[in-house]
Design goal:
Layout (H helix, E strand, L loop, with lengths): L5 E6 L6 H14 L5 E6 L10 H8 L4 E5 L3 H10 L5 E2 L11 H12 L14 E6 L6 H14 L19 H8 L16 E4 L5 E4 L5 E2 L2 E2 L11 H6 L7 E2 L9 H5 L5 E3 L5 E3 L11 H5 L5 E2 L6 H4 L13 H4 L5 H15 L14 H4 L6 H12 L2
Parallel strand pairs: 1-2, 1-3, 3-5, 4-5
Antiparallel strand pairs: 6-7, 8-9, 10-13, 11-12
Helix pairs in contact: 1-5
């Protein structure tokens, strides 16, 4: 009888930080001996290109999946969705060290209570769990959470009786490769998606693409290195900067396409907003995220958590900022300045607030925030 299994993907941190690499290695070594887990390594999610073998592998995962990355879970989820790796949001019990349980619950309710959001298209019933490795230094905590998720997984793996789901009319050679994935000498007959199937200690087949020769005493030097992950891949992959749309928040208001003057955004056949020319985006410029009224545009590499995909609202964890009391620029003004700088860098003219700022933003009263409440309280004191 087929057992329940879940795929765990470790998305490696960019660069060669030894602390991060060590955590990745410890997790990979421990997961290799788990009977109900298939584990694989891929490069940093944000840097994967459409034809990269790591992304091709992710698209081929059929069931529930746990993605361990060095990104906010919200950012990781929508990077995957943008690249065709779709699924329902899986809930992880791991939270950042500085986040209390009530805050996490409020964030989950906020996503569920957005009736005007257009949502993701064609998301299958399988679940994708995204875990931020920056939240935990102890691999045992992450492993315990993965085991918990694996116990709850509902996807059944199939036995070697593939005839029940192979469709079409495969050629005899193709059918033979399906039914006999291993050559007589025990070596894999055909690598799949750039990843080499490896016989696990318990006899289960699991995918592994580690470039490491030795992981915590486990000798992996017999495995061929693949272009999917590792230091060599870090050197080959260039760092990328482009916006990700969170469709669980996006209302298709088109504020981003009106504001951006670099041709980054477009619309699909259903007239839904999408990132059409991501390489046109100006590195380091998050201006369109600042003008989005729903905080639905994510730049995973930005230093500001709310822009990088932290699951918070713009006014969450509000702190008194005296600069706001003395006429500091608004988010819209900052965005316009950032856009003007990029226009000037391209030899074009600055446009300020004259282009891409809907008149309704200035004609209608702005929604009250906590700063307004603070000012009203100060007025009542008669100071």
């Amino acid at each position: 009888m087929a057992g329940k299994k879940i795929t765990v993907v470790i998305s490696q941190a960019p660069g060669r930080n030894p602390t991060k690499r060590n955590l990745e290695e410890e997790l990979a070594a421990a997961l290799l001996v788990e009977s109900d887990v298939d584990v694989s390594l891929v490069p940093h999610l944000n840097d994967l290109t459409a034809d990269h073998s790591g992304l091709l592998f992710l698209k081929g995962v059929p069931g529930d999946m746990v993605v361990l990355s060095w990104l906010f879970p919200r950012a990781a989820r929508w990077i995957l969705d943008r690249n065709g790796v779709k699924g329902q949001l899986g809930t992880s019990l791991l939270k950042p060290a500085d986040e209390d349980e009530e805050a996490g619950t409020e964030a989950e309710r906020a996503e569920e209570s957005r009736p005007n959001a257009i949502g993701a298209l064609n998301a299958p019933k399988r679940k994708i769990y995204c875990i931020d490795l920056r939240d935990q230094n102890d691999p045992r905590v992450v492993l315990d959470e993965i085991r918990r998720i694996a116990r709850e997984a509902t996807v059944q793996t199939v036995d070697l009786d593939l005839m029940s789901w192979i469709g079409g009319s495969p050629a005899p050679a193709q059918m033979q490769r399906y039914l006999n994935p291993f050559a007589p000498n025990g070596a894999p007959a055909v690598p799949a998606n750039g990843h080499t199937p490896v016989a696990a200690p318990n006899g289960a087949n699991r995918i592994h693409s580690s470039p490491f020769g030795l992981i915590n005493g486990a000798d992996l030097t017999g495995l061929p290195a693949t272009p999917a992950s590792g230091p060599a891949a870090d050197d080959a992959l260039r760092r990328r900067w482009y916006p990700i749309i969170d469709y669980s928040r996006c209302t298709n208001c088109m504020a981003c396409i009106d504001f951006c003057l670099f041709g980054v955004y477009g619309v699909d056949a259903q007239d839904r907003i999408l990132v059409e020319q991501q390489d046109n985006c100006k590195k380091g410029c998050p201006a369109c995220s600042r003008v989005c009224p729903e905080n639905a545009i994510i730049f995973p590499e930005h230093k500001t958590p709310a822009i990088a995909g932290a699951d918070v609202e713009r006014d969450a964890n509000f702190k008194i900022d005296l600069s706001k009391l003395f006429g500091a620029p608004t988010a819209i003004e900052v965005a316009a300045a950032e856009r003007d700088q990029e226009l000037l860098n391209d030899g074009r003219e600055a446009v300020g607030l004259s282009v891409g700022i809907p008149k309704r933003r200035t004609e209608q009263p702005q929604q009250r925030d906590q700063l307004d409440d603070l000012m009203d309280d100060l007025d009542k004191l008669g100071l």
